[in-house]
Specification:
By secondary structure, this protein is an alpha/beta fold. It has helices spanning 2-8, 10-13, 18-25, 29-38, 44-59, 74-95, 98-110, 123-136, 150-154, 173-184, 216-219, and strands at residues 114-117, 140-142, 162-166, 188-193, 206-209. Helices cover 52% and strands 10% of the residues. It has a 5-stranded parallel β-sheet with strand order 2-1-3-4-5, with helices on both faces.
């Protein structure tokens, strides 16, 4: 029954929450989630993303502009954000080996100074990470183009420091260049990125994976 409805209304379902779809079909939210997992997805959110991607492939990005998405309630939006955040955190934890996480944490804890760099869409994560590390360790600075004189600041980096570069697809060259300079200065360089082939990984002593989502709701969970 669920499969038949989705097949006949896939373009509409691509914009619906699990609760909205369940209400339309007069079944439980849990039944929708179980169905999503039964057909190979991690959950309803991932199935909906797949339907959205298929819609864009068929009609182009402009083809969805004239469609009226079903607007979620405040409660539904909150639930979607937390569900996405939980899935992203779980996937990130599964991808990163405990050995590497422990090694990076140990170097961070012992560092004289920690530098965090990232530009573009990764800057919000850079700011948040620097704030949290400063709260616990008090020795962290954001190091980006435009934050002071680069030539002067790079001379402050040495082999007792940890330099963390954050970035994902559409990698910003500034971050990669700063990681390279920090490595030349002897710092322990960590890349937080989305894949092993990332150019940030090439400049790093260790790499930690970041799992991200391209869905509109999941953007708030990154």
């Amino acid at each position: 029954m669920i499969a038949r409805y989705i097949e006949r209304n896939k373009d509409r379902v691509a914009f619906m929450t699990a609760r909205q779809l369940a209400a339309v079909m007069d079944i439980s939210d849990a039944a929708i989630v179980r169905f999503s997992r039964a057909v190979g997805y991690e959950g309803y959110v991932h199935m909906k993303e797949s339907l959205g991607d298929a819609l864009i492939e068929r009609t182009g990005a402009s083809g969805i502009l004239h469609r009226e998405p079903a607007l979620p309630s405040e409660t539904e939006l909150k639930e979607s954000v937390f569900a996405n955040a939980s899935q992203l955190l779980k996937a990130t934890a599964e991808l990163n080996e405990d050995r590497i996480v422990s090694a990076v944490a140990g170097r961070i804890a012992a560092a004289r100074r920690i530098w965090v760099s990232g530009n573009g869409t990764s800057f919000s994560m850079v700011s948040y990470l620097a704030m949290q590390l400063n709260h616990f360790l008090g020795n962290t600075e954001v190091f980006n183009i435009g934050h002071g004189d680069v030539a002067d600041r790079i001379l402050q980096v040495n082999e007792q420091d940890v330099f963390i570069g954050i970035g994902w697809e559409r990698y910003i060259p500034y971050t990669i260049d700063l990681m390279s300079l920090a490595r030349q200065r002897g710092a322990y360089v960590v890349a937080m990125t989305d894949r092993a082939s990332s150019p940030l990984a090439n400049e790093a002593d260790e790499m930690l994976y970041i799992v991200r989502s391209s869905s509109a709701v999941a953007w708030w969970s990154k």
